[in-house]
Structures are given as structure tokens and as C-alpha cells.
Amino acid sequence: xxxxxxxxxxxxxxxxxxxxxxxxxxxxxxxxxxxxxxxxxxxxxxxxxxxxxxxxxxxxxxxxxxxxxxxxxxxxxxxxxxxxxxxxxxxxxxxxxxxxxxxxxxxxxxxxxxxxxxxxxxxxxxxxxxxxxxxxxxxxxxxxxxxxxxxxxxxxxxxxxxxxxxxxxxxxxxxxxxxxxxxxxxxxxxxxxxxxxxxxxxxxxxxxxxxxxxxxxxxxxxxxxxxxxxxxxxxxxxxxxxxxxxxxxxxxxxxxxxxxxxxxxxxxxxxxxxxxxxxxxxxxxxxxxxxxxxxxxxxxxxxxxxxxxxxxxxxxxxxxxxxxxxxxxxxxxxxxxxxxxxxxxxxxxxxxxxxxxxxxxxxxxxxxxxxxxxxxxxxxxxxxxxxxxxxxxxxxxxxxxxxxxxxxxxxxxxxxxxxxxxxxxxxxxxxxxxxxxxxxxxxxxxxxxxxxxxxxxxxxxxxxxxxxxxxxxxxxxxxxxxxxxxxxxxxxxxxxxxxxxxxxxxxxxxxxxxxxxxxxxxxxxxxxxxxxxxxxxxxxxxxxxxxxxx
Length: 550
What we know:
The chain has helices spanning 2-7, 15-22, 28-60, 85-91, 97-112, 117-136, 141-162, 171-182, 191-205, 280-303, 322-330, 344-351, 406-428, 438-453, 456-468, 471-479, 484-496, 523-542; strands at 70-73, 79-82, 164-165, 219-225, 233-235, 237-240, 251-260, 308-312, 334-339, 368-377, 383-390, 397-403, 431-434, 502-505, 510-513, 520-522. It has 18 helices and 16 strands.
């Protein structure tokens, strides 16, 4: 039966059905599939927007001085407490490719301006929400993207027009802007100490009259547990977290510093080998050879005139053995070992010395000079070595950040980095604007007026862009426990009456002239945030499919 059934000829389609197939038509199932395929780009676009918005909503509560902190637990169990947007997103495990774009956005803002890493993601989330509503009204993504580009260009023009120029000699305003950056951090209560310290550090390494940029690698920020954040200090020289070796020398004045990259220990063969010793005379000979080899190295160091020795960390063998330490103790040389490879460049630039790769190159002209090298206690039983009074023209300095535990010390280090980046932004673009949601509200109102001069769909999209910028004052009010709708409405009215500097004062819980409260920020931070956020939104809108590779 089964064989007969299989051999039976297939039923021929009816004439109308055959005509339909020939014309490209098909069953209802095929029609439905084609219809679904037409919907796919829209579904992908909405999926991308939702995923990116979820990331923005996750860190929105961290915005502003009253923002919440996040506790991040790593795979190994180590904990980080921070409200810095870039740090949160860097540690966050994000799988969706569109959501990962927001992580890259925050990283780009951190590189460009150093501050506003949370704001840029929040603005991006609001613009994506505005784009989603426009898409649901049937507006084409390319039209939205082009209108957002127009709005972004106009927004940068408006921001530049309301900015106030600043001179780098105006220390007071620089400190106010560094304080504004620090006020939203975990260590905000120490902003009166850390802000002037950050400004002094930048001024130490640049010429205020001619500087156009700042190389932050010239400032080494060292976090160490011991004491409190109040003990944080600026050192015009080098701070080494490694302890001095037990040579009995802990302070050297008029130091000659040698930075060596070879080991003061017996050499090893390039391949694994075993030496079999059959009697004590052979053992005695090996020990004698080792002693002579190490003594020769130490004599070359002493002959060069070096009285401070910095030894690069080695992974192949001991950088310093007990016999070498014994000889250097007799020679009264202060020894610090295990200098990290990435510290070598900073140390050699600061001291004006050359890293020495072989004992044969131990010459006086390769040494660095410093007025004082000493080991100091910083509390909690911890010690650091400071090198000050470097007689070199290189403009570098170090900041020793202290904290009662690792969490506080690390967060203080991140906060100081943000404050340094704010001053760097001012060096790059010497203009400042108000904070507290004032520039975003002013932008929103002026862009809405600009949208009224446009026609058609473009006007509608620019207006949506303008309304999305109100997310910053809305979130600031919400995080401070104030009624956000009331505050934003009042703020909008004050700006409509011409008060361009009116912003949300979260300390007094009202709308005030925010410049009188010393809440200031560099123009570059806001310009960069709006430019990068709008570029990311436009990129996400242009995506209509996700293709997985093999």
C-alpha cells in the first residue's frame, strides 16, 4: 500500500493556482512570510533602541551631585563602588551589540573630555526614545537622522554663543569647575582640597600663556591605602609605591640616581639545565664565581657615583639577591627594586636619566640627579619612596592619593582623574558655561524656536531633539528627590524670560542663578556630549539588520 501511495502521481494544481504561482504569487503562508520580512528592519531598529535605552536607564540614577553610587562585583569577587559613568559601563557585562555602542560612547567621551560620561549616555538614551516615537509615526529613519544632524550643528552654535571666555591665569574659576566635577563623586566632601590640588598639578606641567593641550601622562596619580583622603598631596617629583630595601639607608640628599634594567643576581642559562656537583671544592668554586660576578657589578655601580639604585622588575630571575644587597649595604646605596615596566618612561623623563641595560654602561652621564630621595611613612604601616628636587627641565609631577581602604583610595584616584580632565578641557577650549541643567534647558528652548522656522517633517524631528535634551534637568531633579515636572516647567519659564544661567540648585532645592553657586563646567564637555550622543543615535538609526558571521 505504502509503495503504491508513493508511486501515485502528485495532484496537478488547478489552472488559477498555476497562474498564481507563475505570476509569483503563493499561498497565504508565503504572503505572511514576505510581510514579516518587510517588518524585519523595523523590528531590528526597535530592538536596538530598546537595548541601548536599557543601558542608559541603568546609569541614569548616577547623574548629578545627589546621584546614587553603584557597587560593581567582578568575577574574582573584587568590589568597586563608583558613580562614574565610564567606570560603570566598562565593568558592566553587556551582550547586545547596540548596547555595546553606548559603552564605546562613554569611553569616547572619557577620552575627549574626561567628564560628562554619565550625561552623554543619558542624552543618548533620551534621543533614542525621541527617535522611537518618530519612527512609530511613520517617519523614515534617514529623515530623522538628517534632522538630528541639523539640530546637533545648531546646538553646538547655541552653546558656543552662550559660553564665556576664561583665562588660564584665573585660578579661582578653574578651581570652581574642578569642584563642580568632584561634587558628584563619592569623595565630594573633600572637593575643597582635591580641586586646588588638581589645578596646581596641571599648572605645574604647562605654560598657561602658550598651552593648547595637556599630556596627562606627565602627572602620575598613585593610590595607596593608609591615612585618609585629607592626607592626599602633590609631590613635585616621583612617588614610588615600592619600599626601599633593607640597606640601612632611608634618606639620601644630593642623590645620583641610576635606573637599571639588568639583574643583580647570578646569570641563568637560556635553556633548562642541571649542574651536578660531586664534591665540596666544586661547590666552593661556584660560590666564589657568583660572589666575584656580583661584586664586580656592585663595584661598577659605585664607581659611576650612584647612591640611589632603581631596579626594573624581572620575571626571569631575582632582580636583586641577598649577596648583592649585602654589598650595596656596605656601599651605603639606597635600593628600590621591582619598578614596573610602564613606570620606566615617567621615571627617566622626570630624572633626566637613561635606563641602563648593562653594567658596562654604568657611566656618570647616564645618571639622574635629585635634591632628596627618602622613604616616608603614610599611615597603616605603609611606606612610599619620594624623589623630589629633580634637576631636569621635564615638567612632571605626582599626586599621592591616600584612603582608609582600597575602595575609597581607588574612587579618589578616579575623581582626581576627572578633575584633571576638566582642567585639560579648559586648556583645549578656553570657554566655560553654567552647569545644573542650565545649558540643556537653554538649548531646548532655542532649538524649539529654530524648529518653528523649518518646515515639514524636519521641523518635527528638530523639535523632538530639543525636547529630549530636557532629560538632564529632569534627571537632576529626580535624583535630588525634587518633583521633576514642576522643576523643569519652572526652569523652562525662567529661561523663556531671559535667565540663561538659571539652573537646578540641588542643595537649596530650588531654581537659582547657578553661576552664583559656582556650578560651572567647560564648554568642551557639553559640546562633546551632544555631538557624540547624536552621532551614536544616527548610527543606531541607520542599522536595519544584524548579520552573524560564522
